[in-house]
Structures are given as C-alpha cells and as structure tokens.
Automatic annotation (TrEMBL):
One GO MF term: RNA binding
Name the record gives this protein: WD repeat domain 75
Single GO cellular component term: small-subunit processome
Protein biosynthesis found in the keyword field: no
UniProt-listed PANTHER family: WD REPEAT-CONTAINING PROTEIN 75
WD repeat-containing protein 75 second beta-propeller domain boundaries: 320-644
Entry superkingdom: Eukaryota
Subcellular location: Nucleus, Nucleolus
Region (Disordered): 742-774
Biological processes per GO annotation: positive regulation of rRNA processing; positive regulation of transcription by RNA polymerase I; rRNA processing
Record key words, sorted: Nucleus, Repeat, Ribosome biogenesis, rRNA processing, Transcription, WD repeat
Length: 810
C-alpha cells in the first residue's frame, strides 16, 4: 500500500526579483536572479523558468558566477551561509557556514579560494564591514568558513554601493557623501568627500558605484541625477572627475559594458541611458520600461542587458482573482495595468491597460490606482474599479467585454462616481451566461449603499455598442456602511454585510429576506456554501468568530472562535478554506459548512500574514492518496502573503512539480552545438515538417530512429569505439545520398511489371520484398546496400528466364 504523502507548503512565485543584481550565465543563454530564499534560472530565449535553486533558510542577498568554473554559482543569504551550486543541473555542491548575516556577495577571478561579503559589524548597530571569506577546499558538503579578513569598515549594506576595479586591483565603496578606495597591493586607502549640497541646491549624496573593467575609472551616481567619472584617484589631492547629467532624480544603478566603451544608467524615469565614451553628448535611450530601474546587469559577451525594476514588488490591492478562460491569476501589474499570471510557467501571459493614462514617475504625486477586479462566471465580462484620492475622491467603474476576434477585453461602459465613497466589495452573479438571465454586477460602498448593475440596450443611434450597463437597484440598511457582498450558487440570493449585520436579499424582487448578526465585531468575510451545502451562509468577524447560519431555519448552525483573515470557497466542491492568524503564525482550516469539525488543519503555514487566497480549478483532477487531502483533488489553493510571496500546497516533490516542458527545455538547451547535433537537429526538423504536411515518411539509415544511432547517442563515452573507427562513418553520413523512391512509386512499378510478365509474379514478389528490405534501417553504421537500376533488373529477369539445362549434359 502506498503511504499517504505529506502536505507541504511550497513557494511557486512572487517575492522580489530585484533583491540583488541578476547574473547571466557565461554563454548568455540563462539568467539567474534571486527570488526570496531561492534562486530562479530563466531561459533567455524562451523566458521559461528552467529550474529553482532551493536550500537557503532566509532571504538570498547575492549571487555570483564562480570565476574558476562558469557552470557553478555562489549564493549568499541572511541565514549566514554561502552555497556553491551546479546551476545547470540544480545541484547543491557545498555549503559554507559563515555565521554572520551576509548582505552582499562579490567574487573575483584572481581570488581562487575566497569571496568578498558585506556583514554587520559586531557590537555596532547599522554599521557594516566588507570582509574576505576564505573558502576551504575540504571534503564534505557542509563546512565552516570562519576565517574572515576585514577589508573596509563603515561600508553601506547595499550591494550597489561597493564595486571592484580593474582585475581586482582596488575596491571602491560609497556611503552618504564619502567615497573610499582601497588598493590591495599597496594596502593604501584614499578617501574623497563631497559637500551635502552644491551651490545650486543639488543633492550630492552617493547612490551607486561602478568600476571600469579596463581602465582606472570609477563612476558614481548621485541623488540629484548626476553621474561623476573619477580618474587619477590613486592620489588624494590630484584626482579629477567629469560630470554627466540627464536623470532628473536619483540615479538608481550604473553598469559598464564588457569592454568599458559605454556606461549604462537607470533611475525612476524608467529609461535605460547608454553613455558612449564618457561623453555627455553621445548617449542613447531605451524609454518606457515600466517602472524605476533597480539593477542593471550585462552579459559576458556584451550582447544582452538585464534591468530589474521596482514594480516587481507592487502592493496587490485587487486580491487574487482567477480568469475563467485561461485559469490565470489576475492581479495588479505595472501601474494602472492588470497582469494575467500563468501559474504553470511562472510568468506573465499578458498585461491589460485599465487606467489608459501615461504613468508619471514623480514622488508624492497621487495617480489613478486599480483597487477592485471581478470576472463573470464564464469570463465574458470584466469589472474594474479605479480610484484617486486628493482633495476629492475620484472613482471610476469600468465594464469590459471579451472580444473573440482580438482575444482581448474591450471597454464597454465607463461609470464615473458609481458611489460617493470608496467601493469596498464587488461581485458578479455566478449564473451561466448562456442561460436566459442576463449578467448582474453588485457593488458595495462606504456610502452605506449597495448597487445592482444590469445590461440594457443602448438606444442612442450614434452609440458604437448595442448594449451598456446601467444601475437597476440601490439598497441600504439602517445607514450602515456596506462592507461585503456575494451571490448564492444559483444566483437567487444576495448577501450584503453592513458592519455587524448580514442582510439577505432576493436578487429578482429585491425583497429583504432575513438578517444575521453575531456581536461583537464587524463582519470581515462572508460566503455561501455550494452544492450540497448551498443552504448555509458563512461569515467571519473581526473579533475572532467564524459563524455558520442555516438559510432554511434562519438560525445559527454553529460558531467557532477563530481569527479568520481570509475565507475562500472552492467553486467545484463544498469545501471552504479559512486562513487564520494566531500567535504570529498563519494556519489553514478546511471544512464543510454542514460539519463544524475541520477536514484538514495545517498549522504554521508561514510567519507572514496571508492577505488573499484563491482556488484554481485543475485541468485534470489530481490523484490524491490520503482522504485528508481530497479537497485538493479538483482545485488547487494559492495564497499571497503581505511580502508578495505566492504559495500553494503540494504532495509532490520538487522534481515531480517541475513541468515536463521545463525538463525538456533544460535538456535541449544543454546540448552542445556540434556538427553532429546540428545534423540530428536537421533530421528532427525535417521529420516534423513531413509529419505536419501529412507526408508518408520512409526512414532510411540516416534517421535518428536507427538502433545504431540510438546506441551511439546513449552509450557512455568511455565505452564507445575509438575515434578512428567512428570518423569515417560520420564523414560518410555527411555526404549527400541518392534520394530514395517513395512507396507509391515503388508500388506503381510493381503493378506495371506484373502486367507485362504475369508468369513471373513469384519472382517479382521476391524482388519487391528485397526492395522493401533495402528501405529498412541498417543494423550497423556504415553498412550500405547497392540498388539495381530498372535496366539492370530487366536484364536480370531475362537471364533468369533462359534455359540453362543443356549445361547439365557436361
């Protein structure tokens, strides 16, 4: 009997991707970046997530390629360890235990057995040191690295505030308005200072530093948008610097190209600036990159640049909403946009511009923000709410319809100020849109009202659309603020919470059917039961109670003392997930409304508060062995923490959770581009084209399905024959061979010849079998069979027909 697998919490997305500078692989085919407490590796060509390096117990603060082996990667973390990875295979090689929080990591080619890191200074608060960490080369996977040498005192904790110069001869570090440069060979320290402000009121504070790879030149970014290029800094008094200025605000990061011929800079303008030869007159721009640039990375071959942006860590205000069409998570993206996030590939499918206004990057400027999102049952309609609050509240409700031709959402109706105050909740009636009933949208607001919106025909002859949305009903209850709303499964009832009271309304006649309350405390969440539990209504209060009411008897069925932050029903079953916050830990309770005892309790999910959760229907039901976790069979539960980490539950190992496409991608991209692989790739491509065109594919001895070719590909190198034996075979395979006849041509010739010589049908049948044998793959490489021409075959038949019996007399 198979033992039931344990339910584990796994991180599947989210986290900051700009916590440290991203790193390209040596061949620029992969991009590695930190994401929370693990490292993600992406394919540059396909943007797919190839693998994740998991093993750190805290935030990863830095990654660097091993200068001695470019297929290995160093990573540092706040957990006090440095890990060495084989990132192409996702294997952890060694763990070096330093014992201090590591805030930045640097690796140099001329230091084979050591790396550099920024650590807190012992006994002093907000003080940090740059140290050299000696990595011992001894056997074992875990070892201590306690041998530390202090290089610089009083450095900044940010990785972009320290940089190493040409061939590692010196290190430059900036903090506040001070620049210090340490020369390793001479063991000399030079310090330079600027005034806090210049004569024009500019901010001279250092914000980042980069060193030229070929020359003695240091580039520094400043708070007023200026860039200074320092030279001759080996002398304390004879140094010089030139100034470049384009950015109107803080320079976020700097990076030199591989040869140092150009300098890249980025800031809050979302523009990547390329300065040529250190000249203020020669510069190129790559504008509208989405949001402020946090880090800039350059590949080793100089062909690719990577920019990390701050919009990766935007606050999610819309919650986790599932698109019924694509099963993608829909949430806040770049400012004013909705992102459709694919859970399987861990990347954005596309972005929908909701606000449709250019975002102005200026601190302190209030701009339209996207705060609410809701989909109709089949995903045909999308409702969004935008708001901006300055002296007066600006509010917009937009209804979007899905266009089948463009396969995107198109704006149908814009409603200005649908409520006089903030909208607190919004939901569609969950009824099949192919039925006679038209869709309905309900919004609840702090203006003590809830409103029902329906589709009406547009009578305006100049209108571009035949239908639009209009308000059908306005409801209130004792002038209390409306806080939540939801429809029953069949759409006949609407529940709206007004502070401490839940009201239930008939969605057709708008009659108030009943009210429920459970003082003290305001209602935080409400939802209806589904399927066999549709007669129950569940609510959670902010005073730590979870209540279940029976709609038939209008009585309290049961209640439990639980501080529920998130209440999420599964759309495909009776199960409801409740996430609580107890003793600085989040816990999960899964239950059915008709049974007060939970089906599954998962404590200590994470140390962060969980803000949102969503059930995502599975395309194929999952095979679950344990009855305790059957609630995960048809849907998967995802939840988002207040640190923007997306998590889910799984009973699979990380290897099993890696998608087949990602595995195949990793295998195919790891193949070297040799002439032999190009030859096989050409055969694979040609075979695929033949299959796509419906051709009958007749395999010859060059095909990769040959047993000999398979044997050659899958046999270990140390047991293969010598190169002198394989070389002639390989050269012969590169020669252009005579094209084989198709099966139809062979069949036509056989039929024609059978009409000419019916008495020799047996002999012709033997010839056909011989020709068919010639088409089969050879059992050995290099073995060839000569094919007779048509004239030779006719001569052979004549010879076989002749009577040679007279020879027997001799």
């Amino acid at each position: 009997m198979v033992a039931p697998a344990a339910l584990r919490v796994v991180r599947c997305g989210g986290s900051k991707l700009h916590g440290a500078r991203a790193v390209f692989s040596a061949d620029a085919r992969y991009l590695l970046c930190t994401s929370g407490d693990f490292v993600k590796m992406y394919s540059v060509g396909t943007e797919e997530t190839v693998c994740m390096l998991q093993g750190h117990a805290d935030l990863v603060t830095g990654i660097q390629l091993n200068p001695q082996n470019h297929l290995q990667l160093y990573s540092s973390s706040l957990d006090g360890t440095i890990k060495l990875w084989d990132f192409t295979d996702g294997i952890l090689i060694k763990t070096f235990i330093v014992g201090y929080k590591l805030l930045a990591l640097y690796a140099l080619a001329n230091c084979e057995d050591s790396v550099f890191a920024v650590i807190p200074k012992s006994g002093e608060r907000d003080s940090f040191q740059l140290v050299s960490v000696k990595l011992t080369k001894t056997a074992g996977q875990e070892m201590e690295a306690k041998e530390l040498s202090v290089i610089l005192d009083g450095v900044d904790e940010s990785p972009k505030h320290t940089a190493f110069g040409r061939e590692g001869e010196y290190v430059a570090s900036v903090k506040e308005v001070n620049l210090q440069v340490y020369f390793f060979k001479r063991k000399q320290m030079n310090r330079f200072s600027l005034s806090a402000t210049n004569t024009k009121g500019g901010n001279n504070r250092f914000t980042c530093v980069a060193c030229h790879p070929k020359e003695d030149c240091i580039a520094t970014g400043h708070g007023d948008g200026k860039i200074r290029l320092w030279r001759n800094f080996c002398h304390n008094k004879e140094y010089t610097f030139s100034t470049l200025h384009w950015h109107h605000d803080i320079v976020m990061d700097l990076a030199f190209s591989v040869e140092g011929t150009s300098l890249l800079s980025g800031g809050i303008e979302s523009v990547l600036v390329q300065w040529h030869n250190g000249s203020d007159c020669k510069k190129d721009f790559l504008p509208r990159l989405g949001s402020a640039i946090e880090y800039i990375s350059v590949s080793s071959d100089g062909t690719s640049y990577c920019t990390s942006h701050t919009d990766n860590s935007r606050d999610v205000k819309t919650g986790l909403v599932v698109d019924p069409r694509t099963k993608a998570l829909v949430l806040n993206g770049e400012p004013g946009h909705l992102q459709f996030y694919c859970l399987q590939s861990d990347k954005q499918l596309y972005s929908l511009d909701i606000v449709q206004q250019e975002y102005i990057h200026q601190a302190g400027l209030n701009q339209l923000d996207l705060v609410k999102v809701a989909f109709s049952a089949q995903g045909k309609w999308l409702a969004t709410v935008e708001e901006r609050e300055e002296t007066d509240l600006e509010l917009q409700l937009k209804l979007w319809v899905f266009d089948e031709e463009t396969q995107s959402f198109k704006l149908n109706t814009r409603i200005n100020m649908p409520h006089e105050d903030h909208i607190t909740a919004m939901c569609f009636r969950d009824r099949d849109e192919f039925e006679d009933d038209s869709p309905m949208l309900v919004t609840a607001g702090k203006d003590c009202l809830f409103k029902a919106w329906v589709i009406v025909e547009d009578t305006d002859p100049e209108a571009q659309q035949s239908v639009s949305w209009s308000c059908d009903f306005v409801g209130s209850y004792h002038n209390y603020q409306a806080t939540n709303c939801c429809f029953s499964e069949d759409g006949s009832l609407l529940a709206v919470s007004f502070e401490e009271t839940i009201t239930v309304w008939d969605s057709v006649t708008w009659d108030l059917k009943c009210t429920f309350c459970h003082p003290p405390g305001k209602i935080r969440n409400i939802c209806f039961g589904r399927l066999t539990c549709s007669k129950y209504l569940i609510g959670a209060t902010d005073h730590g109670f979870l209540c279940c009411w029976n709609l038939l008897s209008c009585a309290l069925e049961w209640s439990a003392q639980l501080n529920v932050l998130v209440l999420q029903p599964d759309p495909l079953s009776e199960h409801i997930a409740a996430v609580s916050w107890l003793s600085k830990d989040s816990s999960l309770f899964v239950f059915k409304p008709n049974k007060p005892r939970p089906i599954c309790i998962q404590r200590n999910l994470c140390k962060e508060k969980i803000q949102f959760a969503a059930f995502v229907p599975r395309d194929i039901p999952e095979t679950i062995v344990s009855e305790k976790y059957l609630w995960l069979r048809r849907s998967q539960l995802y939840f988002l923490t207040n640190t923007q980490e997306l998590m889910t539950f799984s009973t699979k190992s990380p290897e099993e959770r890696l998608t087949p496409s990602s595995k195949q991608l990793a295998v195919e991209e790891s193949l070297p581009m040799t002439p032999f692989s190009l030859l096989l790739g050409k055969h694979r491509q040609q075979s695929q084209e033949d299959v796509d065109l419906g051709k009958v594919v007749i395999h010859n001895h060059h095909n990769q399905d040959s047993p000999a070719v398979k044997e050659l590909l899958h046999t270990p190198a140390h047991v293969l024959p010598s190169a002198s034996f394989l070389c002639p075979i390989f050269i012969n395979s590169l020669l252009t061979s005579k094209e084989s006849k198709s099966a139809e041509e062979i069949a036509d010739e056989v039929e024609m010849e059978s009409e000419e010589a019916e008495d020799d049908s047996d002999e012709e049948r033997d010839i056909i079998e011989m020709e068919q044998d010639d088409l089969r793959p050879m059992d050995f490489l290099g073995e060839t069979t000569c094919r007779l021409s048509k004239s030779q075959e006719k001569e052979l038949r004549k010879i076989r027909k002749m009577d040679y019996s007279w020879i027997s007399s001799f």
